[in-house]
């Protein structure tokens, strides 16, 4: 509906007219249990009272609500006819007074897509669980409101729920006379209000802090999950990281946590990693580990906990005015998550993960045709939904890391402290933050902001080394380049490291210089006269955001001695640079996979190792020449098995190699080993094949026709849980049968019966690399269906379908032409839909360039 996609202009006009004094929201979710209600969606009653002011009495405006029906609407005591004022997405408000009270009684729909109030039935025990998820604009699916971030207000919630349930919201709550009533919140935006309800398993703890002035802060802590996950719930570690984070942010922000309690809910079928609702943070329940995982998984969970906690200040206390400045919360939280992880927890190497994993996300996003400045031009809510991307998160965080180096950590943190105190419970724009940083650093921030926040694209830096006749550095320069589409050459503060092998064969840094790179070529005078390097690493220590290239000598050194690099961050940076070269068709995919096979077994950082596995698999599937894929797959399978057998028994490297072996095994010997590991006839010393690993082994067996419906049903009986059901659905869709593919396609594209989690699982199983010919016929069906899917389904499901079912495995010029034909014929399609198709097209074009590069390498497998 046109009214569902709120525009920035409409939001600005409404904010100029209205200010909100408070909300009372009453929900009755007793209908969540029991039999279905008959025809139509299952609904719950929502009664909302909004008190607001209008600075132009007599003017008109509107409130937001997406609901199947409205029972009554009252404005300032006048009953309005719902059929006249409500169109399914908006409630028209005419002849407003200076002071107004709006009361809306509606029947709202439970969600199965993770948007609004999501209802989940646990297949293990039949229990029903509810939670809300709103960002950017889905609270209007639960209660009537003014759905934009700059119309903040205090909220009071009350919830009627089944007798045996517990209910949580942003504030503390108590049950009386069958109703849960919650304390009024501070002024917050609609999208961070929250309700969680059901028979959740709940664990409590407490955080205490005495400040230097003698004031004492006590924060009740809670952590909750489904009852079925309780045996796996390591709440003690969640609370440990939580307390460490609260200490860290109190030390650095000088502003006590302002939202009372701190609950953290791990909920089912969650679309995001987590959401920063003040007082009640929600996380995807996959952060509760059902099987053995590596240290990288615990580090990742800690990073997300701290990311969401940083939002309590950056985003919740001080909120961007409109989604243009989404970076004011997401970039800061992404940076602060790693900053706090290193500074407060056991994960002291988190910046390595950031350099290797988060920046890879940013580099990819920044080279898509949809790339945008960190401060983006967000025209409407569909734009906003798609802007939760690698630019806003990871590039923004990378730029903030550079900003800390630019202004100094003390000035940066003092700027944050002033920002919180100056704008507490308010809304801000870019200039509000820049002004405090100018105050604390004494630097003019406008030029920095113009280069780093208001332009798009990533620069590439390559060293140029001239040697003297004596074999020393005569001149070392850094050459900076930019893409034609985004020609901005930015100022960078970079470190340049020189590396040589020692007598023991280790590749170590012996010289380093920091330099301000500005323009196309910068000479690093400090390194003149140094011994000739075997490796020059631009952006050593990862101070800036750029793609790193190598001169010929450095690249030759890495081909032979990458594993000899002793510094783990330097290794991670080199791996990242080599992967970027592969994606840019500067390094053949077979060369990259060869480097992984040769040196990944010596990688000490488990997060880097797991990233290398993902990259090697992607190189084989997307960037390798088609005629080499069979050879490459065999080499990766043999190499993964070798490393699996040689890894320390019971260690995390062994587990990582086991999962990688399952991902690449596609010959009879490899599949036979997986079957044997499942039925116990084969064994790898120290490898515990737990339930999660069993499913990881079953997927390739299913994809190659070695695990039929009966086998998968038996495995589900063994693991009859929500997690088991998702795994089974993915494996079922992975089977190599035309009938299976037709059924999976119909379930996702032609029906809305599946929940968001099962849509995601079906899409993940549908297109297997070994089934290119089997799924090729769906390319034409894809282009025929996506506009209808986008119009009829929720934006989350639309995004999942458009991204997940794009025919990337039909990687030919024909698919590229078909994509171009659709884009030409659908110039008036929704901009957000066109963006998704353009991004998929760019990935495919990049893959074809990579395949051409790899084909040109011929049989030269190094």
Keywords for this entry:
862 residues, eight-stranded mixed sheet, 28 strands
Structure in a nutshell:
About 45% of the residues lie in helices and about 20% in strands. The chain is of the alpha+beta class.
Can you put this structure into words, describing what you see?
- This protein has 28 helices and 28 strands.
- Strands 5-4-7-2-1-10-13-12 form an 8-stranded mixed β-sheet. Strands 15-16-17-19-18 form a 5-stranded mixed β-sheet, covered by helices on one side.
- It starts with 7 loop residues before the first helix and ends in a 6-residue tail after the last helix.
- The model has no long low-confidence stretch (mean pLDDT 96).
How much helix is in the residues?
40-55%
How many distinct beta strands? 28
Ends distance: 56 Å
How would a textbook summarize the main sheet? 8 strands, mixed
Helices and strands in order:
Elements: H1 8-17, E1 18-28, E2 43-54, E3 61-64, E4 69-75, E5 78-80, H2 82-85, E6 90-93, E7 99-109, E8 116-121, E9 128-133, E10 155-160, E11 166-169, E12 173-176, E13 179-182, E14 195-198, E15 201-210, E16 216-225, H3 235-253, E17 262-267, E18 274-275, E19 280-284, H4 295-311, E20 319-320, H5 327-344, H6 350-365, H7 381-386, H8 391-407, H9 409-423, E21 427-428, H10 430-441, H11 445-452, E22 460-467, E23 473-481, E24 492-501, E25 507-517, E26 521-523, E27 535-540, E28 547-548, H12 552-561, H13 568-583, H14 589-599, H15 606-623, H16 629-646, H17 652-664, H18 668-679, H19 691-703, H20 709-718, H21 722-734, H22 738-750, H23 756-766, H24 772-775, H25 778-792, H26 795-804, H27 813-825, H28 831-856
Parallel strand pairs: 1-10, 16-17, 17-19, 20-21, 22-28
Antiparallel strand pairs: 1-2, 2-7, 3-6, 4-5, 4-7, 8-9, 9-14, 10-13, 11-14, 12-13, 15-16, 18-19, 22-23, 23-26, 24-25, 24-27
């Amino acid at each position: 509906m046109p009214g569902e996609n709120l525009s920035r202009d409409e939001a600005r006009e409404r904010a100029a007219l209205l200010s909100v004094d408070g909300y009372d929201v009453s929900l009755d979710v007793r209908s969540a249990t029991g039999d279905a209600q008959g025809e139509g969606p299952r609904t719950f009653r929502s009664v909302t009272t909004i008190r607001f002011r209008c600075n132009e009495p007599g003017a008109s405006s509107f409130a937001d609500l997406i609901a199947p029906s409205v029972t009554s609407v009252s404005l300032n005591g006048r009953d309005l006819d719902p059929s006249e004022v409500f169109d399914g997405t908006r409630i028209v408000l005419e002849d407003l007074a200076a002071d107004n009270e709006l009361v809306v009684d509606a029947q709202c729909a439970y969600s199965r897509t993770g948007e609004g109030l999501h209802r989940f039935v646990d297949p293990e025990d039949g229990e029903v669980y509810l939670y809300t998820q709103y960002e950017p604009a889905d609270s209007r699916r639960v209660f009537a409101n003014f759905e934009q971030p700059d119309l903040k207000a205090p909220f009071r919630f009350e919830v009627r729920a089944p007798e045996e349930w517990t209910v949580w919201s942003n504030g503390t709550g108590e049950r009386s006379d069958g109703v849960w009533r919650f304390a009024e919140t501070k002024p917050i935006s609609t999208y961070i209000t929250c309700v969680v309800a059901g028979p959740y398993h709940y664990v409590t703890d407490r955080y205490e802090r005495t400040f230097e002035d003698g004031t004492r802060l006590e924060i009740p802590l809670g952590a909750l999950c489904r009852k079925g996950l309780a045996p796996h719930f390591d709440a003690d570690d969640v609370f440990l990281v939580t307390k460490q984070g609260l200490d860290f942010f109190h030390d650095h922000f000088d502003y006590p946590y302002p939202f009372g309690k701190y609950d953290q809910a791990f909920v089912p079928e969650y679309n995001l990693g987590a959401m920063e609702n003040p007082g009640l943070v929600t996380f995807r329940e996959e952060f509760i580990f059902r099987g053995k995982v590596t240290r990288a998984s615990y580090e990742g969970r800690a990073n997300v906990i701290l990311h969401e906690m940083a939002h309590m200040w950056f985003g919740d206390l001080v909120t961007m005015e409109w989604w243009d400045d989404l970076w004011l919360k997401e970039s800061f939280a992404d940076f602060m998550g790693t900053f706090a992880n290193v500074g407060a927890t056991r994960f002291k190497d988190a910046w390595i993960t950031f350099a290797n994993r988060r920046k890879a996300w940013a580099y990819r996003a920044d080279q898509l045709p949809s790339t945008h400045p960190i401060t983006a031009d967000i025209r409407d809510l569909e734009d906003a939904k798609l802007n939760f991307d690698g630019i806003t998160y990871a590039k923004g965080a990378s730029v903030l890391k550079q900003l800390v180096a630019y202004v100094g950590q003390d000035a940066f943190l003092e700027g944050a402290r002033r920002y919180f105190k100056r704008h507490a419970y308010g809304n801000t724009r870019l200039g509000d933050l820049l002004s405090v940083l100018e105050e604390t650093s004494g630097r003019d921030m406008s030029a920095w902001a113009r280069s780093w926040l208001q332009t798009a694209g990533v620069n590439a830096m390559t060293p140029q080394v001239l040697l003297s006749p004596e074999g020393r550095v005569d001149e070392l320069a850094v050459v900076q380049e930019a893409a034609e589409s985004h020609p901005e050459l930015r100022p960078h503060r970079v470190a340049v490291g020189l590396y040589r092998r020692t007598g023991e064969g280790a590749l170590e840094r012996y010289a380093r210089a920091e330099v301000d790179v500005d323009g196309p070529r910068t000479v690093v005078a400090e390194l003149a006269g140094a011994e000739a390097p075997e490796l020059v690493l631009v952006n050593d220590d990862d101070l800036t955001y750029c793609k790193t290239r190598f001169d010929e000598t450095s690249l030759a050194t890495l081909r032979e001695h990458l594993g000899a690099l002793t510094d783990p961050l330097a290794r991670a940076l080199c791996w990242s640079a080599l992967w970027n070269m592969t994606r840019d068709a500067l390094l053949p995919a077979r060369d990259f996979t060869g480097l992984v096979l040769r040196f990944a077994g010596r990688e000490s950082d488990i997060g880097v190792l797991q990233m290398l596995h993902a990259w090697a698999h992607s190189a084989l599937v997307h960037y390798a020449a088609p005629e080499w894929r069979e050879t490459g797959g065999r080499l990766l399978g043999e190499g993964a098995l070798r490393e699996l057998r040689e890894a320390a028994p019971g260690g995390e490297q062994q587990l990582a190699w086991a999962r990688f072996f399952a991902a690449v095994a596609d010959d009879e010997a490899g599949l036979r080993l997986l079957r044997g590991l499942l039925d116990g006839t084969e064994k790898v010393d120290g490898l515990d094949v737990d339930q999660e690993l069993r499913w990881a082994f079953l997927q390739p067996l299913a994809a190659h026709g070695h695990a039929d419906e009966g086998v998968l049903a038996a495995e589900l009986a063994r693991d009859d849980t929500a997690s088991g059901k998702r795994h089974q659905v993915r494996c079922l869709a992975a089977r190599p049968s035309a009938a299976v593919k037709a059924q999976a396609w119909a379930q996702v594209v032609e029906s809305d019966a599946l929940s968001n989690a099962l849509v995601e699982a079906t899409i993940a199983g549908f297109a297997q690399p070994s089934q290119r010919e089997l799924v090729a016929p769906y390319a034409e069906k894809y282009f025929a269906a996506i506009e209808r899917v986008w119009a009829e389904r929720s934006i989350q499901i639309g995004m999942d379908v458009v991204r997940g079912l794009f025919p990337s495995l039909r990687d030919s010029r024909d698919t590229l032409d078909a994509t171009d034909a659709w884009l030409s014929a659908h110039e008036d399609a929704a901009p957000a839909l066109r963006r998704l198709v353009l991004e998929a097209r760019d990935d495919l074009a990049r893959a074809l360039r990579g395949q051409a590069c790899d084909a040109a390498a011929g049989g030269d497998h190094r």
